[in-house]
Amino acid sequence: MQQESADFPALAAPGAKDLAVLDERLTGCRACPRLVDWREETARVRRRAYAGWEYWARPVPGFGPPDAALALVGLAPAAHGGNRTGRMFTGDRSGDVLFEALHAVGLASQPTSTERGDGLELYGVRVTAPVHCAPPDNKPTPQERLTCRPWLVRELELLRPTLRAIVVLGAFGWQALLPVLGGAGYRLPRPLPRFGHGAHVELAAPAEGEPPLHLYGCYHVSQQNTFTGRLTPAMLREVLAAAAERAGLPVTR
């Protein structure tokens, strides 16, 4: 399989036997030329504040235990966050807000996330995204989302035995995730549920007798939302705690 081929995700993801194999294959993907050029150019130019960093500049895999009961789904890594550090929501202000809230409700070992190897552990939570490379202007194209989709489909299939709830950060992530859930076998209602902060939808599991999946909407932890007060720390903690309780995870209130 050629990593530069647009078919690489569709060929490589389904056969991954576990999340470790999936993540290893994902980090070598070069299927989307525009995203490859952008992530690598960003690593060459860098920001002055990160001049001494050796950027990750590859697709960023999901982060968290393989038996997670709760998943957090964003949209794509940030150019100088995940694309720099190699871990989702790590090294940028969006991540600062997210991990502080996760720690506050008892789902993370510490309130900060600065780099891989900083000691952060997630408790029953996995953080991932529909697009695994940093896109220009934080806007992947519809085709890039489609090309990247098999990675998240397989990730959710592998998490299915333990996954009970998902929090989706932002409307773009919500729109990207719904077809992924369908591809992973979950039964979507018609019409499709609309995004909203605090929205909650119960999805029937792929197989009879399996527990349902609880889908929650939350405004994205972008500076545009957190600096303006559209998303406050209390609002974020409330959604995370509600989803964690549905997933059967212990929560600090």
From TrEMBL:
SUPFAM superfamilies: Uracil-DNA glycosylase-like (SSF52141). This is Type-5 uracil-DNA glycosylase. The keyword rRNA-binding does not apply. The keyword Hydrolase applies. It comes from the Bacteria. SMART domains: UDG, UreE_C. Residues 61-240 form the Uracil-DNA glycosylase-like domain. Belongs to the uracil-DNA glycosylase (UDG) superfamily. Type 5 (UDGb) family. InterPro entries: UDG_Type-4/5, UdgB-like, Uracil-DNA_glycosylase-like, Uracil-DNA_glycosylase-like_sf. GO terms for molecular function: 4 iron, 4 sulfur cluster binding; DNA-deoxyinosine glycosylase activity; metal ion binding; uracil DNA N-glycosylase activity. Keywords: 4Fe-4S, DNA damage, DNA repair, Hydrolase, Iron, Iron-sulfur, Metal-binding. One of its GO terms (biological process) is base-excision repair.
